[in-house]
Amino acid sequence: MPIAATGLFVYSICKGHGVGDWDIGPVNLRSSTVGNTWISIINSIVGNISPMIVNQPDVSRYANDRKHVVIPQALGFIPPKICILLFGMISTVCLKRAYGETYWNVWDILNAILDNEWGPAARVLIWFVSISFAIGSIGLNIFANTIPFAADLASLLPEYFTIIRAQVFVGLLAWAVVPWRFLSSAQKFLTFLSSYSMFVGPILGGMLADYYVVRRGNIHVPSLYTKSSSGAYHFYKGCNIWAILCWVACPVIAIPGLIRAYHPNVSTQTATDIYNGSWIYTLLMCFTLHSVCGLYFKPKLYSDGHETSPKTWEYLGEFNGFFEDDVPINGVGYPGTVERDYEDKSSSGDEKGDGDVLVVEVFDSKV
């Protein structure tokens, strides 16, 4: 897909005879409108990648070291994302100069090339680009959408769903939201991104506040795998009521703008400005509200019996998220923990059966 996108980008520049002469006409904006326009642009971009931001724990949990998560994301995500934005804008401008129309999505560009450059070479080019983008879209949806959804659904309903079964289910469920309606025009697509991000932004804000402010970077791993009320995350029958209320309350400020996006005569321009920056505003609002509620309600940070343990920044990080008396989980536990498993020698083929063998496994702190 990167090769196909780069090839299409180079073709557009060559066909448009260079990158210059954007020909967008004069833009006259009031000072207050300029700021809101910038926020709207940032909101649209971040809204597009917000599912990746929120769903990272479902993928990064497979890493064995923090740098295995940070470095690949920083180098493999941020620069390519900037390149894609530049590729799209420059390709659109160049092909407008060549064909006289503005195309905002890829398939319109490919159709325009076929209409204006019909021939064997153009058909082969479009075929390779199309199949590359199709495969890339499938891979992206598996990574960004089906795996996170499947992980959540399999956790909520483990009796009915496995990871694979939940991935198939969401593939079928996707048809119910008629996604092609979102892509019928550029304006509808941007409206969808803003409306989607106004619900995702508070999730991220609550996650950041809970980790950095309320818990100060401490996650007790065994409490994540128990339904017992002695765990750190049981709250009220397994639900953190005040955190849910924080998430529900924050998108309210953007709902008038969402209504005005479909009914322009309703509400005011201020509502639209808030809606256009809904990801940023709702994230900051939920971060603040969740922090205040966390400091007020003071949820327990550790499981019962460890109330007096230090609550300094990422204290449990040094111990893999375990206390010394915690039972290891799937080969991970408190550094230096010894797990004893007695195994009968006779089961391994020893006919004499000279007693039991003591198998000792020491868990490395780097796990």
Describe the structure.
- It is found in: Membrane.
- By secondary structure, this protein is mainly alpha-helical.
- It folds into 3 domains: 1-177, no CATH class; 178-321, no CATH class; 335-362, no CATH class.
- Helices cover 57% and strands 4% of the residues.
- The protein is built from 12 helices and 2 strands.
- The chain has helices at residues 2-15, 31-60, 67-76, 78-99, 106-116, 120-156, 163-173, 186-214, 241-249, 255-262, 269-276, 278-297, and strands at 338-344, 356-362.
- It is globular, with a radius of gyration of 26 Å.
Number of strands: 2
Determine the N-to-C terminus distance: 34 Å
State the domain count: 3
Quaternary structure type: single chain
Q: Give me the Rg, rounded.
A: 26 Å
- Judged by helices, strands and strand pairing, the structural class is mainly alpha
Please write the string of helix (H) and strand (E) elements.
HHHHHHHHHHHHEE
What is the spatial order of strands in the main beta sheet?
1-2
Mean residue pLDDT: 82
Helix content: 55-70%
| Unreliable runs | 340-360, 363-367
GO molecular function, one term: nucleobase transmembrane transporter activity
InterPro entries: Pur-cyt_permease (IPR001248), Uracil/uridine/allantoin_perm (IPR045225)
Transmembrane segments: 124-144, 156-177, 189-214, 235-259, 279-297
Keywords: Membrane, Transmembrane, Transmembrane helix
